[in-house]
Write a structure and sequence with these properties.
By secondary structure, the chain is α+β, with helices and mostly antiparallel strands. About 35% of the residues lie in helices and about 25% in strands. Strands 2-1-3-4 form a four-stranded mixed sheet, with helices on one face.
């Protein structure tokens, strides 16, 4: 299973922009879990673990492999989907042609 940790804060304008983008990007992936972490309110163990220094930050982690990728800043939905699709291709093998054609990374 792929975990995506979205680190943000209420006062962060980039975080407010990224939040709906990430939510839309993960739709349709049954094996992707999104956890949104407010750095001002939530436990900071994950911030320390992934060395989160700037907001917003996305961390991609496989439950069996561990850390995969970190993205800092606001990014378009396509980049998030590309990371998910590349992960799935590497972990599970060939992707359907329609997914491969939409991958820009």
């Amino acid at each position: 299973m792929l975990n995506i940790f979205e680190f943000g804060a209420d006062w962060c304008s980039g975080c407010r922009i990224l939040k709906p983008i990430v939510e839309e990007a993960v739709k349709g992936y049954d094996d992707v879990y999104l956890k949104q972490i407010n750095v001002d309110e939530d436990d900071d163990d994950l911030c320390e673990k992934y060395k989160v220094m700037s907001l917003p930050t996305l961390v991609f982690e496989d439950t069996s492999i561990g850390f995969i990728r970190k993205i800092v800043g606001t990014v378009p939905k396509e980049i998030i989907k590309d990371v998910i699709n590349i992960y799935k291709e590497l972990k599970y093998g060939e992707l359907p042609r329609s997914v491969k054609e939409s991958t820009s990374l």
